[in-house]
Amino acid sequence: MTAGSDASAPATVVRKGVRKGAGLTLRDVAKLAGVAPITASRALNTPSAVSESVLKKVREAVERTGYVPNLLAGGLASRKSRLVAAVVPTIVGPVFLETVQSLTDALAVAGYQLMLGQSDYENSREDALLEAIIGRRPDGVVLTGIMRSPESRKRLLASGIPVVETWDLTPTPIDMLVGFSHESIGVAVARHLYGAGRRRVAAIAGMDERSRRRAKAFSDEAVRLGMGAPGAATVPICMVPAPTTLGSGRSGLCQLLQDDAAIDAVFCSSDMLAMGVMIEAQVRNISIPAQLAVMGFGDLSFSRDLHPQLTTVRIDGTAIGRMAARFIIDRAEGVEVLERVQDIGFTIIERDSV
């Protein structure tokens, strides 16, 4: 169940004269700007010490290359920091915790420490966070998803720091990738519900980009299978803020039933949403699964303890973290990574809610 998503093509970065695998240096920026390295350094660190024309040329060179100054330059005898940075959308929800724990454990065994940042599903916050991270030159960066801003993609490419993108899939990662196809999940869930006899489906999805893609693929496949209202081009999708909550699941089901009381299955972009749907259904005396089937995503620890137990999509977060750590460690130790894109797939865990 593998599907690539070429969400962002590699940016073109000026790297003339830079050895393969190395990050851009101040000397490269100075050469492009046509000034001496010491002049470029002054322009970046004490702009008032250079002329406006020189400052303009240096800043244009920085913009073209995506160069981020090394905040640790001169402060370390070795180029290795033994530090790896990871960025996740949130630490409020538990879905990424398995990956973070596995990544932390695998890095620690090899003598590396993990620094964790939270982007809150916002590119603007991730951009600022990545600039700070790159400036401290960790030995690797682990990111969630593949949707970077052009500026961050350019900076990461220019830095020469090993990068592993996770929890998504594309044939054109920035560097390396460990993940799975959200589109394939949406299709598989629609087919699973169809096989269970459901013919009037809907979805509740977080507003983050990955959840939207899962929901769209689910809707497209459901329409193809004839699981929507007669003549409808899509199935109902209720979008809720990310990170998703139990309350969003309850209010989401209320909205769906208000728009179409005939729905007989709901696919939720998280197990937390699914639990909210199940609670709201029970309040309304809607029998699960006799009247309404519910599917989640994430296979969180509480999913098997619900009544009825929740049918959901399992992602092996431990494998993602372990493989991402292996990629970073190998690259930091000078070992070439031959298979840079790893699709770990997913599993539909069948329980009692469908």
Question: How would you describe the overall organization of this protein?
Answer:
The protein has 354 residues and is of the alpha/beta class. The protein has helices at residues 26-33, 37-45, 52-65, 97-109, 123-135, 150-159, 182-195, 209-224, 246-259, 271-283, 317-332, and strands at residues 83-88, 113-118, 140-144, 163-166, 176-179, 201-206, 237-240, 265-268, 293-295, 312-314, 341-343, 347-349. The protein has a six-stranded parallel β-sheet with strand order 2-1-3-4-5-11, sandwiched between helices. Strands 7-6-8-9 form a four-stranded parallel β-sheet, sandwiched between helices. Helix 2 packs across helix 3. It is elongated. It starts with 25 loop residues before the first helix and ends in a 5-residue tail after the last strand. Mean pLDDT is 89; it is low at 1-21 and 74-78.
Instruction: Please give the alpha-carbon distance between the first and last residues.
Output: 21 Å
The helix/strand class is: alpha/beta
* Count of DSSP strands: 12
Using only C-alpha atoms, the radius of gyration works out to: 24 Å
Order of helices and strands: HHHEHEHEHEEHEHEHEHEEHEE
Oligomer category: single chain
What sort of overall outline do the alpha carbons produce when their principal axes are compared? Answer: elongated
> How would you write the strand order of the largest sheet?
2-1-3-4-5-11
Overall pLDDT level: 89
Proportion of beta-strand residues: 5-15%
The largest sheet is:
6 strands, parallel
Q: Which percent range fits the helix content?
A: 25-40%
Residue ranges: pLDDT <50 for 5 or more in a row? 1-21, 74-78
Counted by DSSP, the helix tally is 11
